[in-house]
Amino acid sequence: MITAIVMVHTAADRIPEVAQQIADLGGVAEVYSCAGDVDLVVVVRVREHEQIADVVTEHISKIPGVQRTATHIAFRSYSSQDAEAGFEVGE
C-alpha cells in the first residue's frame, strides 16, 4: 500500500464542505482540518503510484473551494506501537 499525505489549501468559508467531499473519495483514508499553514491534511492510501495522481489531480484539485495542493509520498511508517513491540521481542 502506498501512502501520500496531501496538504490542501481551501477557501476559508468552504473548509467543512471541501473536507467532506474529499473524505468521500475513493483512496482517501483520512481528512483532518487543522490550524497552521494548510487548511486540510489528507491521507491517501492506494495500491499504485498512478492512483495518487488520479485522486489528487483528477478529484481533489477539481473540488470547488480547493485552491492548491502539495503532495508528499510516505516512504516508511513509524509509530510508538512499533517501537514498543521491538522491546517486547527479547522479553
From TrEMBL:
SUPFAM superfamilies: Dimeric alpha+beta barrel. It comes from Rhodococcus antarcticus. Signal peptide: none annotated. Coiled coil: none annotated. This is Lrp/AsnC family transcriptional regulator. Residues 6-76 form the Transcription regulator AsnC/Lrp ligand binding domain.
